[in-house]
Amino acid sequence: MINFNYETDFNLDNEQAFSDWLSAVIVSEKKNEGEINYIFCDDEYLHKINVEYLDHDTLTDIISFDYSVGNELNGDIFVSVERVEDNAKDFNVSFEEELKRVLAHGILHYCGYKDKTDTDAEIMRSKEDEKIAMFHVEQ
C-alpha cells in the first residue's frame, strides 16, 4: 500500500495516478509492495531528520528509511517539496517531473540501487528515467 502524508501545505494532485504508477514501478523491478509511506515536508522538517538520524547537517530532497523484508518493499520516504522545487529550476525541468524522479528514486533505493559512486549514480539516473516514462494518467 502506498500512502501519502503531508507535513506542509503541499498536496499531491491525483494521488491515485501516482499510487498506481509507484505500484507498477515496484512490479517492474520484480518486487512486492508492502507499506510505503511518502511524507511531504519542507526543508526545515527534513533537515531535522537529516541531523538527528543521519548526522548530516545539510539540506536534501529525500531521505528514505528502508524497512523492506526480502522482496517486500516497506519504508518511509520523506520528501522536501522546497528542495524539489529548487532542483526543478536548477535542472530546468517541471516540478512534476522532478517530483516523479524523487518518488521513483526512493523506491529504487529499496530495490537495491545505489548512487554514491559516479557509475552507480549513472545507473540510478537511467532507472529513474525508465520509471518516469511509465507514468500514465488515465483519461
Automatic annotation (TrEMBL):
Name of the molecule in the record: Endoribonuclease YbeY
Cofactor(s) listed: Zn(2+)
Matching Gene3D superfamilies: Metalloproteases ('zincins'), catalytic domain (3.40.390.30)
Main location: cytoplasm
EC number: 3.1.-.-
HAMAP family in UniProt: Endoribonucl_YbeY
Keyword tRNA processing: no
Taxonomic lineage of the native organism: Bacteria, Pseudomonadati, Bacteroidota, Flavobacteriia, Flavobacteriales
GO MF terms, alphabetically ordered: metalloendopeptidase activity; RNA endonuclease activity; zinc ion binding
Signal peptide extent: none
A single Gene Ontology CC term: cytoplasm
Cofactor binding description: Binds 1 zinc ion.
Matching InterPro entries: MetalPrtase_cat_dom_sf_prd, YbeY
The entry's keywords: Cytoplasm, Endonuclease, Hydrolase, Metal-binding, Nuclease, Ribosome biogenesis, rRNA processing, Zinc
Family affiliation: Belongs to the endoribonuclease YbeY family.
Pfam families hit by this protein: YbeY
Record's subcellular location: Cytoplasm
Domain of life from the UniProt record: Bacteria
Function statement: Single strand-specific metallo-endoribonuclease involved in late-stage 70S ribosome quality control and in maturation of the 3' terminus of the 16S rRNA.
Organism: Flavobacterium reichenbachii
Record-level GO BP terms: rRNA processing
List of residues binding Zn(2+): 105, 109, 115
